[in-house]
Design a protein that fits this description.
This protein is an alpha+beta fold. The chain has two helices and six strands. The longest helix has 11 residues, at about 30-40.
């Protein structure tokens, strides 16, 4: 279920949708970031993924019922920053077509 209204700007055009999931893919210090978002912001950690050595690779933090923030450690190949965010669209084909016309 979508929960947060957002406006996405592509060039000078804007598309209004609803943010259903945001993903901060890479952070400089995974433990420090998880500590901040859980202790300061009060987000819950519902689940995480680990590598074969039992080290966390991706940690999901729940902002509200439908919105999650995904955190993973930055690497030389994947620097810190926002990787992507999900946008809810009632009609996916129409939304893709409209965005392609704007690009």
């Amino acid at each position: 279920m979508p929960v947060l209204p957002v406006t996405v700007t592509i060039g000078s055009q804007a598309a209004v949708g609803e943010l259903c999931r945001a993903r901060l893919r890479r952070v400089k210090d995974l433990n420090e970031s998880v500590n901040f978002y859980t202790k300061v912001m009060g987000f819950q950690e519902p689940f995480l993924f680990k590598d074969k050595n039992d080290n966390p690779t991706t940690i999901y933090l729940q902002i509200n019922r439908d919105t999650f923030l995904e955190l993973a450690a930055a690497t030389a190949e994947c620097p810190a920053g926002l990787s992507h965010m999900g946008i809810w669209a009632d009609d996916l084909n129409a939304t893709v077509a409209a965005l392609r016309q704007r690009a």
